[in-house]
Each structure stands twice: as C-alpha cells, then as structure tokens.
Amino acid sequence: MPKRRDSAEVTLPREMVPSFLDGERRAKTLSVSIVQETQTSRPVVISLAGATAALAAMDEQHKRVGTATALISVGPEPEVRVPPPPVLPMIRVAKRTKARPLAAMPKAVAAVVRKADCDEPPETRPIRAWLDGRTLLWGVLCTKGAYRDTYAFFIHRAGTRTAEPLNFNMPGLPRSGDADHHLTSPSFDHKTMTLAFHDLGRSMGDCGRAGRFVWDGATFQPVELSAMPDCRGVSSDDWPIVWRAGIR
Prior knowledge:
Oligomer: single chain
Structural class: alpha+beta
Mean pLDDT: 89
Helix content: 10-25%
Strand content: 25-35%
Distance between the termini: 45 Å
Number of strands: 16
Shape: elongated
Number of helices: 3
Low-confidence stretches: none
C-alpha cells in the first residue's frame, strides 16, 4: 500500500467529470482511498476549502463564465463563445557552434568576476561554451549549499575588453533575492543551446522555481518557467507553468 509520503495521480473518465465537479461545488471535504487488488487504504480526507473560489478564478481567466464548459460558473452560453488560447510566442534557436570552450577564463571575464559578490573560487566547476563564433558564455559557482548551487553568468564577445552580466528575463515569476544574472542548479546543453535551472525551496523539492532558456543569437529567451511558492508536497513535475514559448 502507498506510504504516507507517496503520491498518486488519478485521471477521471471524461463522462465522470461533470458529476465530480458538481459534487465538488457542494462538498466541504473529499475522501480518497486507494484500492490495490484486495486491499483498500484508509481514507484520506482532503479539505475543499477554497477549491470553489480557485476553480471560479480559472473560469474567469479562461473567459468561460456562463458557458457550458465552465468549471464552476456554468451557464447556457455555448462553448464557441470561449476565446481560443493565446498564440505562443515563437523563438528561433540559433545554430550551435562546434568550437570548444576556452580552458582558461578570459581576462575580461576574470575582471568582472572579481567584482562579483561570490563566495566560491571562480575556477570551481565553471559552465562555459561558445554560443557563436564570437560570443562566449561563462558561468561561475557563486554560492554553494546542501542542495542548491547558485551560479553567476556572464557574456564576453570577442574583440571587446569587458564582459557583461547575463541578465535573465523571467516573465510571470516574482523577483527573488538572487541577482538577475544568477541561476540556481543550472545546466547547459550545447546541442540544443538550452540553459536550464531548478531552484528548490527546500531539500524535499516540493517548492521553488524552474525553467529553460534558449539562445536566439542575441540573448537567452525563456521558453518555459514554472513555480510553486508554497511548500505543500507538490513535485516540480506538477508546478504551475507561468510562461511558455514555442521554438523553431
């Protein structure tokens, strides 16, 4: 049987959704039991306080209030009255270069790193890659924690004497305590020109923020950002997505 901290995912058949939502509108609690062969777990009672308000807010955001497809605010209006979802912004990913990254930190990068407020030696596990024939990405480990390492990222263009902080645009995410050019638990995939991060709020990984950026030839553009501000046992696979873009 499932342990106390196990999670379970249930998908209702389409025909059961209306009756389930109808019951949820009127109920105050939801009792859940898991059946495995001949065993049935003890029921877990889930409070539905605030569920109706949350679903009604979803109706408002989706412009479904008063339509047959609304979750809470059901009405006589047909489904065709609901506007289509907004078109995703499209980002053209730049072609990757085959050049190997430099082994030694360029003087221009070293100069700006010395001024950065970092606690770790700059040569510790750097993230470095040529983004094109003249643009170098360089990330240095800035602070190190038990389950979260934060990096500071810089861009250096060949022929220039200075490097610049690589500030990341994160639409839909509230500002954190980190600097705009910092990412926590980052990784870079040179094949897809993707820079990802996974910022855990605590070691259980049930809150925090995560996302992916792709290089478009000028900067790193966000293609997916998700966040869970409250630590409530929700794995990062199920964090609400606050920004999404298409790539080509």
